[in-house]
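Researcher: Re-running this chain for the archive, since the previous output was lost when a drive failed. Same request as before.
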Amino acid sequence: MAKLETIFECQECGSSHPRWQGQCTQCQAWNSLVEMTQEKLKKSSTFNPTKKSKATPLAQVEISEHHSIKTDISELDHVLGNGFVKGSVTLIGGEPGIGKSTLSLQLAIQLAKTGQKVLYITAEESETQILLRSKRLGTVPPSLLVLADTNMLNCLEQCNSLNADVVILDSIQTVSHPDLSATSGSVSQVKYCAAQLIAWTKSSNAISILIGHITKDGMIAGPKILEHMVDVILYVEGERNQRYRLLRSYKNRYFHTDEIGIFQMEECGLVPVDQASELFIEASSLKNPGTAVSAIIEGSRAFLVEVQALVVETGYGMAKRNFLGVNANRANLVIAGIEKILGKKLFSKDMFLNIIGGLKVDEPACDLAILMAIISSNEDLRFKRRVAFIGEIGLSGEIRSVPLIAKRLNECEKMGFEACFIPKTNAKNCPELKQLSVIPVSDLRDLMASVVKEFQSEHLVQT
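Model: Regenerated structure tokens:
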């Protein structure tokens, strides 16, 4: 009979302690130890598919022609680089209801259509529920198999017996292994189940995709080591009341990180969006005061974002500052520059900033757009033509250079903008543009003088 022992496991890092204590000695987290009963088994039932390996000279390692598999989902292939690499493990995280299961089922259908044997393991839904959702996404190919089970050992045996090419597990927090007495979702179960599936994936040269829940802090639930064990980490982001979704790469051992893919939620699933700038700017709103446009870089692509500001007289003793999608520290820096250098008194005015579409932008190149949106709202300024603003603002009012200026300007021209203000130090790197007029500026005073000259807004400058 198996012996039982009581341990205290940290829910932050997964370390075990013989007795309870207030602080974990490994990760220094407070009140994170939970009492658990662990069985000491004489003979483990662990499924171990690993084979003995031998050292090989690196130069003699053979690479298969088909070492990666494309998904035929353009935005996903863009994020991954060249599809899924064989022998890789990918972790997809996101908030509940954001579209993780829809994307994974859509991915399973697409891979099965290419001739891959795909095993979709669901620990949260039944086979009937998966079938109903898959019919909404398209025709179900015969090579797509589904398994509804929460026992990780049974899942591994099915993966091995079916010799699956692709395994999708939804989700890693809801399965448990019989070797551990801990409940599913605990740190030890998540780490152990993931380690077993990763071992099978590497030995079988298959592709595994894990769906993960996230905590209230936006991190993958479970031990931090889980993020180090996998090869690729993708996050599905977006607002529930918005139709678009961002697929962001936070880790990729086979391609550069910080790539994003943009999808639009439709009845038939997540549809890739080719022209991202069209989602985040409205032609009609550009004619209103308090609106400015900037070009940001996400991964290897540039797209335009619309910054809106509303400046009103405060009705309270202290002015309010509400920022949505904008870094609060950078916004306060810009406001301080407007007051100190340009002489605009904003301390007695409520100020609201928003990035249209629910985006979260933390790039310094958006500083100029934030500044012009605030001034436009405060002075009731309407731009006479489509103009964009790109540049970082320093503490002394200088406008500093930004990287990849050519990509940003090309995107502005593609979207039909007529003028763009950029840092003077970036002017030498500008590409040849046919329709876009580039206006280099060196500091905030130079910017305001150019705005007056271009848009006939003399009331902005007080000399």
